[in-house]
Design brief:
By secondary structure, the protein is mainly alpha-helical. Helices cover 86% and strands 0% of the residues. It has one helix and no strands.
């Protein structure tokens, strides 16, 4: 069976779409990891600030 030009173009477009989808998934994963790290850092900063504020007696 011989492939037509339309089928070859459709296959190439599908391959490019799959590659773009994998790149987007990787970017999304990395973005999620950095978001979680930022949330952890903000939580740590808030926790230490609250601990300092509560631990110090007011004059």
């Amino acid at each position: 069976m011989r492939l037509s030009i339309i089928q070859v173009i459709a296959a190439l477009v599908a391959a490019v779409c799959v590659v773009i989808a994998f790149i987007a998934a990787g970017v999304g994963l990395i973005s999620t990891i950095f978001m979680l790290l930022a949330l952890a850092a903000l939580g740590f900063i808030a926790w230490t600030a609250i601990r300092r504020a509560v631990g110090q007696p007011r004059p």
